[in-house]
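Batch manifest, entry 17 of 40.
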Amino acid sequence: MQKKSLYDKLFEYGCKLLKYRDRSVYEIKERLKTKVSSEQDVDKVVKKLIDLGYLNEKRFVENYINKWLAKGKSLNLIIYELREKYKVNNDIINRLDIESLKSQQIKNVLQIVKKKYNKIDKTKIYNFLNRRGFSEEEIETVLNKLEEK
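Output type: structure tokens
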């Protein structure tokens, strides 16, 4: 039986991490660095994962945004997390269709608020959305749409 090289072990570990969910390049690099001290080996593995299409930062950003928008998190907070926690390149974030994401955000928030609060209690709704990172303008839009229905 042949021993696996360090590179092969790192590659398998990278694939294992990506089986669970999409990850950012920064996140994969940090996780691989815990297994080895050589920055060059980590960079080679990351390049191979990208070349094979296993690691795709654009796909990660889209999936991350859709997941957290559906859970009712504000788009501003999501983008902040992508920049700070996952060190996503600003070019990828700038290429997003922000207007369609904002309209999707409003729809999702309306559903969550309707589900959470049967009776319209503006103060509770305002506080709930404020804690989730929504701006005053976005909260007012949601409250106005709730009153229309």
